[in-house]
Write a structure and sequence with these properties.
Oligomer: single chain
Shape: globular
Bound molecules: coenzyme A
CATH superfamily of one domain: Citrate Synthase, domain 1
Order of helices and strands: HHEEEHHHHHHHHHHHHHHHHHH
CATH topology of one domain: Citrate Synthase, domain 1
Strand content: under 5%
CATH architecture of one domain: Orthogonal Bundle
Largest sheet: 3 strands, antiparallel
Number of helices: 20
Distance between the termini: 76 Å
Structural class: mainly alpha
Length: 469
Amino acid sequence: MERTYKAITELILQAKNKRREKQSGADSIDPIFDQMRGIDWPIKCTVGPGLEGAIACKSRVGFVNGSEGSLIYRGYDIFDLCAYSSFEEVSYLLLYGELPNDRDLASFTSRLREYRFMPNTLRMMMSAPVESLNPMAALRIGTNFMHQRKTWRDRECAKPPLEDAIASDEDSIPMETPPRGEKRAIYEFRRPHLDRPRAERPALDDAESMESCMHLIAGMATLAAAIGRLRRGRLPIEPDPELSHAANLLYMMTGRRPTPMEERAMDVALILHADHGMNASTFACLVVASTMSDIYFSVDAGIGALNGPLHGGANELVTKMLREIGSPDNVPSWYRKARESGKKIPGFGHRVYKTYDPRAEVLAPLAGMLAETNPNCAKMLLTARGLEEMVVAEMGENKKIFPNVDLHSGIIYHALGVPEDLYTVLFAVSRVSGWTARVMEYLENNRIFRPRSLYVGEFNREYVPLENR
Ligand SMILES: CC(C)(COP(=O)(O)OP(=O)(O)OC[C@H]1O[C@@H](n2cnc3c(N)ncnc32)[C@H](O)[C@@H]1OP(=O)(O)O)[C@@H](O)C(=O)NCCC(=O)NCCS
């Protein structure tokens, strides 16, 4: 186990060094970022369609440097986080802004362990036609089943707290008569703020919100695995409290405890997808949160946005494409046809990165390592490499089109035995850390989103009655 861990760490650090060699000013920060530091609202910027270039808010969660090809979470380089950290630690970092100490990490991990267990939600999922739903739609339904009070029922089911049992025994009789002069029954959920009107509830630093973030981070892994199994007519598998988040995800999906290499590969993939600036799904989460809706609805919106082929849906398209190409020998003819038809090639190009995506630089060698023991995966990888050569030769310098995160993530999931229809779901399972962290941050200075559209329609049209049209 130790050897595998070291080998993967080594491979990530090599990728980091390679990246540094490519960068001219290895520690430089994007000049635009420096200019932005001191400025305050109202910010002047050039905005394109789709809000391109618009600055929606300030954030300390993470930063994507598109020209340099770097990605940081809370100031830490993604290569270092992949090399030394875990998804649990990274989720804590994103949510709280600091790396956890031993005690913090133990308590965070134990929350995730508890929340991963969702018997009620899974029971509800089993009553839904998951097998005939789009897996991302099933994930949305699942997060809604986790929603609010259901959350606490799941918790109670998982581990009925003894003191609650006593409380309900003593206090359940006077449900209508508030005990001890209280205006409300304090024993109900032991969470007084739940019953306060929404406007009075603390929006942040509120245990409910942070607990809900952890509930979503842990629970979406359980949901993803259950969706995969239910779609194949199998029963969901309960999480194993002894396993890490990454290992549990694979275990609940496949029914087999992963090898150390598989666990680490999954963990690295989760870390790499956890946050990525103001992307479409993160923005969707923030828009919903800004209306003072709640974190479950916000994440629900993020899942919807992530589903699109221009965003999280691309990883599935990549493996489909690689299968369609079939073998490295077929790459040139396939590529020519694709270019002639004006088709965008999945796994390449990025709105922000105008160089290699650093996530792809970690995932490519990781896929190589997994391919050593998986011939099917090896063929896909060779095909992807052939395609990469052709795309970069024609469009690299010319159009700044390089491999993005999706080129290799699907190959890795394939090697880990993840069914193809769950690739985008896995993206959401990871990105939920960034979504929740950014929602919590945004709510500190919440302002409802309300951009304008440019009306280019007509005015003063005369209404024509139906019979005259
Ligand atoms: C990610 C993506 C939506 C970014 O798009 P964008 O920043 O809006 O870039 P544009 O669509 O404006 O493309 C700019 C130019 O590069 C070309 N281009 C961009 N991505 C391309 C791709 N994957 N394959 C071929 N050409 C591509 C466009 O055709 C366009 O060419 P033109 O100037 O001759 O018209 C786009 O690169 C894409 O669709 N990639 C494939 C899907 C994918 O992998 N998505 C996952 C992203 S993590």
